[in-house]
Amino acid sequence: MASFKSTKIPIYPKLGEKVTPDTLYWKNYKAPAQIKEFGAVTSIDFSPLAPHNYAVTASTRIHIYGPFSQEPVKTFTRFKDTAYSGKFRSDGQLLVAGCEDSVVRLFDVSGKVALRVFKGHTKGVHVTDFTSDCYHILTGSDDYTCRLWDIPNSTELTSYKEHTDYIRCGTTSKLNRDIFITGSYDHTLRVFDARVEKSVMTMDHSQPVESVLLYPSEGLLVSAGGRYVKVWDLLKGGQPLVSLKNHHKTVTCLSLSSNGQRLLSASLDRHVKIYNTTNYKVVHNFDYAASILSLALAPDDESIVVGMTNGVLSIKHRKSPEEKKEVAGKQRMRPVYRVFVKGRNYVPKKDDFLVSKPVKSHLAKYDKQLKRFNISKALDTALENRNPEIMVAVMKELDRRGTLKNALAGRDEQNLSQLLNFLIGNVVDPRFTPVLITATEMILDIYQAVVGQSSVVDRQLVRLQELVEREIDYQQDLLEVLGMLDTLFAASLPRKELSLVPAVLPGFNRKGILTGSREWTNWG
Questions:
Q1: Strands 282-287 and 303-308
Q2: In which ranges do the WD repeats occur (predicted)?
Q3: Is there a domain that residue 62 lies in?
Q4: Using alpha carbons only, what angle is made at residue 43 by residues 39 and 48, rounded to the nearest 5 degrees?
Q5: pTM (two decimals)
Q6: CB neighbours of residue 140 within 10 Å
Q7: Of 84, 112, 436, 473, which sits 20 to 30 A from 200 (CA to CA)?
Q8: How far is 158 from 181, CA to CA, in rounded Å?
Q9: Residue 461 sits in which domain range?
Q10: Is the pLDDT of residue 104 over 50?
């Protein structure tokens, strides 16, 4: 009796991930280290000076971490309420932060007590930054005002109240100490000049603005709000340059690589997108476990630090050249050559007795059902695997046996709905179409009498019909394009001239003229 042959699952070619220089560059980070903070991480800022410590603002405190430390090297806890926007000065010596209690505090990085306290706002201060001359501080608050403060005298220099909603982001110019930009929940971006009494430029983002970023040249401004990341040309009066919509939820923060050629955006959808600043196409993507509130990139791109809503701080460090060599050198140990040739040349002797051990074959669940001729259960078992290759292989085997129609028949609403869901998801896949089209036709033949009795099945049949019709339209368009390409290729081929030598027919001379009184035109 012949043994049962298991169903052969065909191996389909898979398209590998396209390897680009960006893929190699951004994948060259170690596994992330994670630190649990006391609350949601709302701000991360790297010190401009080596060794590039970074300040993490979460809950009522600011922690300063070293580049490779798991424990904070410094902690500021002099906040009565939630702290916001801890930022380093360009010399790395001072740190400024806002607070929900409307007070702005200035700290010496080497000390603990606040050097200066700035009071004047009436609501929480979410935006702080130093001007390029290092002597002034920009603040933005939920009281709709943005203000400039003088550090030596602890006094307010100027105040602007042009926004009509919370100010949640802002940045200062690194080239001009008087220029700064703010973004608000009133959907606007405003460019201010401290020498002028009102804003000099206004741009409409059309969504509550969560983050702003200036390019190093400061000719371009990037804003994030809603699902959009927009780029503005400041040299053309704030003209919109690009609008990107690659996130599924609100974009919360922006960052720029050290060379200025890659833009990073993070969102509540748990993704970090990396854009090429030449064409603004996504070149890489990072996934995280929770919604992202803050993102920072080390000045030398050696670390990517992400803060999330669940209070987890994720740090990725770039691999060193030594670690790259170790990874490349770790290859799987393979058996030596003698293992493969052992016993191959052995010749049995005269008195040898051969003992054969039967090889036990382990059948898959669907093969066991096929062996017992339970065709419907075999189809259900293959469907439970959620692997389209297995399901299509079982359908193909049942069709070869001539029992596919019987396996598809006699199903209730739930089982039929599962089958239709599978067809909707895979019928237009060119790998599976030849088999699934046959199964679809059988299902329509079997269940056409019960159409209209189940709203769920009716909706799925309509979706399947629309899907097939759309695919047919695509195929027709592709055939038209193929015909156009054939015409173009045929027209581009070089033409070869054929020299034909006319034969001399009886009754004609070599010039093609009939020998006689009547003349004919040249036929050659």
A1: unpaired
A2: 118-159, 244-285
A3: yes
A4: 140
A5: 0.64
A6: 29
A7: 84
A8: 14
A9: 371-486
A10: yes
